[in-house]
């Protein structure tokens, strides 16, 4: 729209809806006033205004030349509850859920897209089995089987006396000890189910204001797997007039995208059943192995039937996980009740039968050696490696159909992150098992010749710990390269920094080498964000190779590294040192997780820091793992959409939604959800935004260049502010000539404004007598350009007559 034809500025109401970024913010800080009032919302997320602005719509003349400021605070959705910091222990689940959303965009490859989603869900399922198997290893193998079966171990622990084989009591039989100890992993699975069910009711059940009615058609017609292609590059295409080119909309604009009630319920049932079946298999499997060598035909038959039922249960879990993905084309409120209720119930029945079977009297049964945890962990690790490699193949096939130079790791970001999730799961579970084994064995070393009272945890865990020092040594090389590159980049940037500030602008003061070096170093460090994918790729690749080596070493030798290299010259002390250091690092890592969780529970500042991790990692819905931390966007995006719809309908005014950092991602997602009529009355102002720099590169199917271009076409106008010193935000890289006529921007160049100067001035000036700080990612609203761009956006919007008269019901709100 040219300046000559631009709609004149109107005296109608104008609203600026502010959305804060990561780490949280108070309404007082956002609005710059200690006196605020909550307009709508609850203690977790709400809209606030200054007390003086509470009834601004009733006095439009007072706000003729300025917008009504309004702040949406959502920090309590992630970092407000101290107990939620303990979700940090479930970090692998959150990471694998991110891998689900990192698939490359593709055109017309619906089956491959479905296959990609099913593979990620299988990796997520393996993590649940791994966590439960680790709990079984600690409770059943180390405590109930090994320590309680050894007089040397149980004799030093009075609390194990009633289970000790040397005491000869009712609980001394191995099967009964295992049945009793199974309460620990079963309780863990129950706790995960409870947390997922509680958060499912609070997050996944928030209905969006737009979209079709609840789905009631055939399942196959209603399913859209993982944002599968229904238009160009897998994005939904909005209906448009025949004369217009239809804009490409992101899948985030689909009615059911932020309503994952059905999928999470189904996955929760499957993962709960998988955990229960893992516990049942550990208990019943030990008893069945004994009965196969015994003479009791009845118990042998019962064992075979029970193991067959467990295999059938596992097959049912796999079918439920692989059968169906997300439903996004409509708000789907249905539940698969047969799976949601029947699967966990059947698993509980099998667990009860397993406990009864194992508790049957077997007087001649004595525990020796270890339970077959080695085989269990080996199968899990091999399955995870095979799934990640297959996932990489699927991602490569998707990426080659729609290549883009800025896509992370050439479309392999999802498999790389899935590998990291498996590595984190292995480190955490292995750390628990090894620390418990060391605690039980006292001064001895489990697994070494004559040094321990118990055999110890599976050999594979020791091999995995031994490769950690090697992995750190491998990572040291790219880390040093990045340090050197950053230092050289800072030196190269120094002349450019001085040229930008001393380009004829009067009053910048004298050149200062220290000041120049500080600004250049800040820019160089901010650029490290763009090379982070390299480190992720190196870590994932090295983890895959070293993990394969650990499996091979444990498989071939059957012994811990310190023994397998015995009499091997320097290899033996090196292996022992690697095992000791790796075991210490694994234990330290687990203790660090627990310590951070406890500190976050007591310390508000630490809770806020950890909350930043959730702000970034839990933006996406739980599409792969139901036990991951809940998705706050499934509450925040409907909140913002409802607010924009109701306010514009009630007042007919203009609205600019202003998002900083992660708030800009929420703002864009909410704008995609708006009806077309409402979207034309809304402008978007982003600053310090990771929309393209992080989300566009890591999640190309949802925030790729075509999706961002489609968003710019649908909005009346969108402006983005950024700095070269910002390590998170960046430009959108949407060229103005790509935007068709009528997009609404006067300046036919870019969505991005030229990079803001940071600091605002180089030295001391008349207006800035004291040195200005280098702000980086913060302080955008203090820049003079912010107010200028906001005013320009509001000036382009034309208010309309309210669609509903005063006093009508409709969807209006305060």
UniProtKB/TrEMBL annotation:
InterPro entries, alphabetized: AB_hydrolase_fold (IPR029058)
Compositionally skewed regions (Acidic residues) per UniProt: 213-226
TM helices/strands, residue ranges: 85-103, 115-135, 178-195, 269-286, 298-321, 342-360, 380-398, 410-433, 467-488, 531-557, 577-597
Alphabetical keyword list: Membrane, Transmembrane, Transmembrane helix
Chain spans, region Disordered: 42-62, 205-230
Keyword Transit peptide appears in the UniProt entry: no
Name listed for the protein in its UniProt record: Integral membrane protein
Organism: Streptomyces peucetius
Source species taxonomy: Bacteria, Bacillati, Actinomycetota, Actinomycetes, Kitasatosporales
């Amino acid at each position: 729209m040219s300046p000559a034809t631009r709609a004149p500025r109107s005296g109608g109401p104008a609203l600026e809806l502010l959305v804060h970024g990561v780490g949280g913010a108070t309404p007082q800080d956002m609005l710059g006033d200690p006196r605020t009032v909550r307009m709508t919302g609850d203690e977790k997320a709400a809209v606030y205004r200054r007390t003086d602005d509470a009834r601004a719509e009733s006095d439009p003349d007072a706000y003729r030349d300025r917008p009504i400021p309004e702040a949406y605070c959502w920090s309590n959705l992630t970092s407000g509850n101290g107990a939620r910091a303990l979700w940090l222990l479930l970090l692998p689940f959150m990471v694998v859920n991110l891998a689900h959303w990192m698939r490359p965009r593709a055109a017309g490859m619906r089956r491959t897209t479905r296959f990609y989603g099913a593979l990620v869900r299988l990796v997520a399922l393996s993590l649940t089995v791994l966590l439960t198997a680790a709990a079984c290893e600690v409770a059943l193998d180390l405590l109930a089987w090994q320590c309680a079966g050894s007089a040397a171990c149980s004799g030093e622990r009075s609390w194990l006396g009633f289970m000790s084989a040397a005491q000869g009591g009712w609980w001394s039989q191995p099967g009964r000890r295992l049945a009793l100890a199974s309460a620990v992993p079963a309780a863990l699975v129950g706790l995960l189910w409870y947390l997922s069910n509680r958060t499912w009711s609070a997050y996944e059940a928030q209905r969006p204001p737009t979209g079709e009615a609840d789905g009631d058609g055939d399942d196959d017609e209603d399913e859209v797997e993982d944002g599968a292609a229904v238009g160009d590059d897998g994005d939904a295409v909005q209906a448009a007039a025949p004369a217009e080119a239809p804009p490409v909309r992101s899948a985030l604009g689909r009615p059911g995208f932020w309503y994952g009630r059905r999928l999470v319920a189904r996955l929760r049932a499957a993962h709960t059943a998988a955990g229960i079946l893992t516990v049942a298999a550990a208990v019943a499997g030990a008893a069945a192995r004994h009965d196969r060598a015994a003479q009791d035909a009845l118990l042998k038959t019962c064992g075979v039937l029970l193991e067959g039922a467990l295999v059938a249960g596992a097959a049912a879990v796999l079918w439920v996980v692989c059968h169906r993905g997300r439903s996004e084309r409509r708000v789907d409120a249905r539940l698969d009740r047969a799976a949601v209720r029947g699967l966990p119930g059947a698993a509980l029945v099998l667990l009860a039968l397993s406990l009864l079977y194992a508790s049957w009297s077997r007087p001649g049964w004595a525990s020796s050696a270890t339970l077959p945890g080695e085989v269990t962990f080996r199968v899990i690790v091999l399955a995870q490696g095979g799934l990640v490699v297959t996932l990489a193949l699927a991602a490569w096939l998707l990426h080659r159909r729609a290549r883009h130079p800025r896509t992370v790791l050439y479309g392999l970001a999802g498999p790389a992150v899935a590998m990291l999730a498996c590595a984190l799961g292995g480190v955490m579970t292995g750390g628990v098992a090894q620390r418990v084994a060391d605690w039980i064995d006292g001064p001895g070393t489990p697994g070494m010749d004559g040094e321990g009272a118990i055999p110890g945890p599976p050999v594979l865990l020791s091999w995995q710990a031994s490769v950690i020092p090697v992995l750190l040594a491998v990572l040291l090389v790219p880390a040093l390269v990045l340090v050197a590159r950053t230092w050289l980049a800072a030196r190269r940037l120094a002349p450019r920094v001085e040229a930008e500030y001393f380009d004829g602008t009067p009053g910048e003061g004298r050149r200062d080498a220290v000041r120049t070096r500080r600004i250049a170093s800040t820019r160089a460090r901010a650029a490290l964000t763009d090379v982070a994918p390299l480190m992720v790729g190196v870590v994932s690749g090295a983890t895959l190779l070293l993990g394969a080596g650990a499996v091979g070493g444990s498989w071939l030798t059957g012994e811990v590294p310190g023994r397998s290299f015995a009499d091997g010259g320097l290899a033996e002390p090196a292996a022992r040192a690697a095992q000791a250091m790796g075991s210490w690092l694994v234990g330290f890592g687990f203790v660090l997780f627990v310590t951070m969780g406890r500190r976050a529970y007591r310390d508000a500042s630490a809770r806020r820091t950890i909350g930043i991790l959730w702000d970034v990692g839990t933006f996406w819905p739980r599409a792969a793992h139901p036990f991951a931390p809940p998705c706050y966007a499934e509450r925040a995006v409907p909140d913002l959409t409802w607010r924009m719809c109701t306010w514009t309908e009630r007042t007919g005014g203009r609205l600019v939604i202003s998002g900083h950092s992660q708030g800009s991602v929420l703002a864009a997602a909410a704008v995609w959800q708006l009806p077309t009529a409402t979207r034309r009355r809304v402008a978007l102002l982003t600053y310090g935004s990771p929309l393209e720099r992080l989300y566009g590169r890591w999640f190309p199917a949802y925030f790729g260049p075509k999706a961002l271009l489609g968003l710019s076409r649908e909005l009346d106008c969108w402006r983005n502010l950024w700095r070269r010193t910002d390590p998170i935000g960046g430009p959108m890289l949407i060229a103005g000539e790509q935007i068709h006529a009528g997009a609404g921007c006067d300046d036919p160049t870019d969505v991005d404004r030229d990079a803001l100067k940071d600091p605002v001035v180089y030295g001391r000036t008349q207006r800035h007598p004291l040195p200005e700080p280098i702000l980086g990612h913060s302080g955008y609203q203090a820049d003079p350009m912010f107010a200028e761009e906001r005013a320009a956006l509001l000036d382009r919007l034309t208010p309309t007559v309210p669609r509903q008269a005063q006093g009508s019901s409709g969807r209006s709100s305060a």
